[in-house]
Amino acid sequence: MKGTNNAFLWGGVPVLDLVDKFGAPIYVYDCAKIAQQYDRFVAAFDVPSLHVNFACKALTNISILRFLRSLGAGIDAVSIGEIEHALRAGYETSQIVFTPSSVSLKELDQAAALGVRITLDNMEAIRHWGRKHPGYPVALRINPHIMAGGNRKISVGHIDSKFGISIHHLEEVIQVSKDAGVRICGLHMHTGSDILDVQVFLQATEILFAAAEQFELLDYIDFGSGFKVAYKEGDIETDIELFGREVSARFRTFADRHNPALQLMFEPGKFLVSEAGLFLAKANVVKKSPTTTFVGLNTGFNHLIRPMFYDAYHEIINASNPSGDKGIYSVVGYICETDTFAWNRRIAEVHPGDVLAFKNAGAYAYMMASNYNSRLLPAEVLIHDQHPHLIRKRQEMKDLFRHQTDPPLPF
Fold first, then answer.
1. Fewer Cβ atoms within 10 Å of its own Cβ: the N or the C terminal residue of the chain?
2. Do domains 9-28+274-400 and 60-268 have the same CATH topology?
């Protein structure tokens, strides 16, 4: 947003002030936007018992998790590290659901020792669970065999996906669970990310409802997430209000027949935090070729890989000149690879030293960053009530060598 003095603001704070105080590149998150998205999501559903677990792989910073806990969210974790983050953020074990993929039995045992809710996604794990953890209820992740998502890389419920147990193996799953003495307390499904068509979601929910009919008594049904947010002005997003009305009606009917105390569960990640995030970087150079004008930044795919990995679109604003005349630029990074953030994008005139702001940088952005090219990771800042707080320090050069041992080898 622009301020009255033509300053570009985020969370009510001038972006250039943030760069002056904390440096760049830097990630900035707005608590108000996270709260707005959480409230919108919860308001979309009308069921007796709704529980929203934040898919913390989207943004696993303790301060972010603590803020979401204050709003009423639980946690969906996919690793022991994420569970430990949630515990440090003050979550009770009953508020954490561990939904991993292809992890070792040892890691499942570690999660059980911590006492969190657990979701299993393969037969071996079910048999192991009966032997090792009798009486510890678990959920099952079902693969509904639906192709859904913005592209194949983020479609995870189709027949060739590694995620979940095939819906065609349901009878075998039920029998194996009974033979192993495993009590199934919940069913889980996630079809993909960036899904626009509400009907695709509803098709998948009907499959999961049909599967749930075959279990004696479930405590909850988890429909995952995958809701698309708007990446630019006028962009299409998932109609969460329509989806909420449709799913709520179906869920209430199912619960009335089977278990009035049944809990409806979701695990949104991007929907809650993507639009709250802004990534700020400085222009190192503006360079012209015969056909293209490049803006080279003091960052690269080591800090924001989504445009290269997912072909993701991020709106880019020249925060130093937000109302200037537009030019056509290809925005690139400083990594010795082809790390192009945007080709031929209309951006207000850019000069070396200008700060460029990438919107929709709250999900799967910092969390997918790396030290490639021996570059340092940026800082993170959280804005609460228009006050910025440093929630992760910028790496220093010594951090690159912290875990290298340099033994006395004969060379």
1. C
2. no
User: What CATH architecture is 9-28+274-400?
Assistant: Beta Barrel (2.40)
Rounded distance, CA 329 to CA 327, Å? 6
- Residue identified by tokens 């192993």 is 180
Q: Which residues of the chain have pLDDT under 50?
A: 4, 147-158
pLDDT in tens, 217-244: 899 999 988 888 989 888 888 889 998 9
Cα 382 to Cα 390: distance, rounded to the nearest angstrom = 6
Place of tokens 């929203």: 52
Which residue is associated with the tokens 């065999």?
145
Phi, psi of 69 (to 5 degrees): -60, -40
Angstrom distance (rounded) from CA 147 to CA 156: 8
DSSP 8-class letter at 155: B
DSSP category for residue 2: B
Question: Cα(53)–Cα(86) distance, rounded to whole angstroms?
Answer: 11
Catalytic residue among 31, 56, 185, 336: 336
Task: Give pLDDT, residue 183.
Answer: 94
Judged by phi (left if over 0) then psi (alpha if -120 to 50, else beta), residue 149 lies in left
What pLDDT shows up at residue 144?
79
| Three-class secondary structure assignment of 194-256 | CECCHHHHHHHHHHHHHHHCCCCCCCEEECCCCECCCCCCCCCCCCHHHHHHHHHHHHHHHHH
Burial of 32 (0-12, 13-18, 19+ CB in 10 A): middle
Spatial CA neighbour of 167 closest among 124, 125, 121? 121
Name the pTM for this structure: 0.92
Helices within 142-191 (DSSP H only): 170-180
The CATH code of the domain at 60-268 is 3.20.20.10
Give me the pLDDT at residue 349, please. Answer: 97
Number of Cβ atoms within 10 Å of the Cβ of 343: 12
- What pLDDT is stored for residue 155 in this prediction? 41
Is there a catalytic annotation at residue 336?
yes
Question: What pLDDT sits at residue 167?
Answer: 82
Cis amide prior to 388 (ω within 30 degrees): no
Domain spans of the chain, in order of start: 9-28+274-400, 60-268
C-alpha torsion sign, points 193, 364, 269, 220: positive
373-410: b (≥16 Cβ within 10 Å) or e = eebebbbbbbbbeeebeebbebbeeeeeeeeeeeeeee
